[in-house]
Amino acid sequence: MNEKQDIKENAHQGYDKLDEQVSVSKKNNKARNIFRLLLPLIMGLAAVFEYIYVPNNRPMAKQTNFYNGFLWILIGIYVLSLLISIKNKNLREKLIYKAPFYSLIMVILIILDVLTLKTEKLRLPYFPYVDMIFNAIVKDSDYIMESTLSSLKLLFTGYLIGSILGLITGILCGYSKKVSYWVEPFMKILGPIPTTTWLPVVMVLATTLFKGAIFIIALGVWFSVTLATMTGIRSVDKSYYEAARTLGASEHQLVRKIAIPSALPNIFQGLTAGMSSACTSLLIAEMMGVESGLGWYINWKKSWAEYASMYGAIIIICLTFLFVNWVLRKLRDRALIWQEGMVN
């Protein structure tokens, strides 16, 4: 009996120690998460302090509140997200995961301001300070807006044409061996060649520079979407087709109900890769010939050594392409929501 009691007491002591360790671990984890959540806020305030109170090495530099206001907007958005995350567990977990990256962005902004405005390690005109770039964006806002709309018009025109043709070609090549026999050799020839290689020829042959740029963008998108769609349809399990035929499905229904839905993950991969190709082709086309758009604006400002405006346009390009890819990713998630049900 004594032995049994000793065993029970030891077991209880072991459970108590385990509970204590778990409790300590939870407290440490909670403290760590709180620190992670506060770190972007701390670094944001440090960036504001550095900009306002650290003396400039350029006494003639015109310092405005655009950059300071931008920092306070970022801080305000983050504080608002923190307040919402008190009752939103998913948002809180997302902020905990993203907090180190947000902190890194603030650190990069501090380093840039120190190297340019505060110490002048990176000198003008090639390396303008951050506030100077914001002023250039505000000053040329009309030009930048017009150039952005022109670039988006050119981008989406070429992208839509290339995507539609790519989907049609990919479906036909993936499902029909006869079509694949004639089309696939041309893809093997054109595939390794970057689409921008054809730009000088197309710009000469096209009736307008705008149409030539559309052709170049559409060509790159067509190849990416065709290859991804064809691969996706060919990877569909043949037993699905056989089962559908047994139930009396027509060839049209096989393509519409089985081939395309099964190939959707590959199709969206091709659409994403096509967008990257389209963005690259767009900027090169605008820099080489098209007389409008953000690429043209960058080339124009570079020729006049207005590097602040040039960097401002690059920032607008990054934000624009990030937004376009975000929209495309949301469409993909919505179209493939049925996959989450299968996984769960």
TrEMBL record:
A single GO cellular-component term from the record reads:
plasma membrane
Enumerate the Pfam families for this protein: BPD_transp_1
Q: Which InterPro entries match?
A: MetI-like, MetI-like_sf
Alphabetized UniProt keyword annotations: Cell membrane, Membrane, Transmembrane, Transmembrane helix, Transport
Q: What PROSITE patterns is this protein classified in? A: ABC_TM1 (PS50928)
State the membrane topology: Multi-pass membrane protein
Q: Check the UniProt entry and state the signal peptide residues, or none.
A: none
The UniProt entry's sequence similarity note says: Belongs to the binding-protein-dependent transport system permease family.
Q: What is this protein called?
A: ABC transporter permease
Q: Lineage of the native species?
A: Bacteria, Bacillati, Bacillota, Tissierellia, Tissierellales
